[in-house]
Amino acid sequence: MIVVPTFWKRQCCSVLFLGLLVGVCLPARLNSQESSVRDVPTEGALQPARADATPEQIFAELMRRNELRNAALHSYSAVRSYAVTDPKGKVHAQKTVRLDYRAPETKSFVTISEKGSAVVRHLVLNRLMESETEAASGKNHRDSTINTANYTFSLVGEQDLGANHCFVVQATPARSDKYLFAGKVWIDTQDYAVVQIVGHPAKKLSVWVDKAEFVRRYQKIGDFWLPLKDETSVHVRFYGRKILTIDHEGYTINEVKSEQVRGGGEDAK
């Protein structure tokens, strides 16, 4: 089920909490050769968009399809694996949880396992889950929906991303707001579901955070498009770069355990 405000609030909180973490408790490790968020896998060259496609038509159909999928998604459970690492792969903290969602606005997390720094888990991972629970229940709501009120869209072209043929759309935020992002959105041309979003906050989040980027991928499971992987990279002044990854798997949808399909798409909160 797609609730883009929840998605971007999660990404924004990831950046804020990760920046706080680096500034408070992790050792400095500067490296001029550090790369940005890992290269996004794509297949095939960017192609011209079909003549009858417009950003307005694409997003109108996206929202229509999302409403239908939202109405059909009564519940889901998934296993999430969180990890905070540095660019060389050193793991500072890990946590695996079971997420349970019940429509329309209930989310809960149960810890399965955890290891690494207790401070990192508290400052980043636990607070991230708390913020997501609050957002799902309607608390601290801030409209960051991907729509024409918040963004200007331009159609870049079409491209294959894994098994999905996608429209590629550039999203430009309508205002400088930390709850909006600037970046690209890949939308499946058949299902009109978001396959991938790559971007960065529309507003500088902190005097300490020099650079922040995120990549979110989705997968199709049955009739629904659900998160596959999040990666948020933050470069903090004087401390270097840290990376938060979240892997999503083991879905049970509407009480039916689903086969895990590695693809793309976005509907889930």
Mind explaining what this structure looks like?
This protein has 269 residues and is an alpha+beta fold. It has one domain (4-29, 59-257): outer membrane lipoprotein receptor (LolB), chain A (Clam), CATH 2.50.20. It has helices at residues 4-25, 55-72, 118-136, and strands spanning 43-47, 75-85, 91-102, 106-116, 151-161, 164-173, 181-188, 194-201, 209-221, 224-236, 240-253, 256-257. Strands 1, 2, 3, 4, 5, 6, 7, 8, 9, 10, 11 and 12 form a twelve-stranded antiparallel sheet that branches. Strand 8 (194-201) and strand 9 (209-221) form a beta hairpin. The longest helix is centred in the first third of the chain and has 22 residues, at 4-25. The protein is globular. Mean pLDDT is 80; it is low at 1-5 and 22-39.
Short description:
The protein is an alpha+beta fold and 269 residues long.
Helix content: 10-25%
Indicate the CATH class: Mainly Beta
The amount of beta strand, in percent, is 35-45%
Main sheet record:
12 strands, antiparallel
Shape: globular
Structural category is: alpha+beta
Mean pLDDT: 80
Order of helices and strands: HEHEEEHEEEEEEEE
Under CATH, the topology is which? outer membrane lipoprotein receptor (LolB), chain A
Number of domains: 1
Helix count? 3
Overall number of strands = 12
What Rg is obtained from the alpha carbons, in whole angstroms?
18 Å
Distance between the termini: 6 Å
Any low-confidence stretches, pLDDT <50, length ≥5? Answer: 1-5, 22-39
CATH architecture classification name: Clam
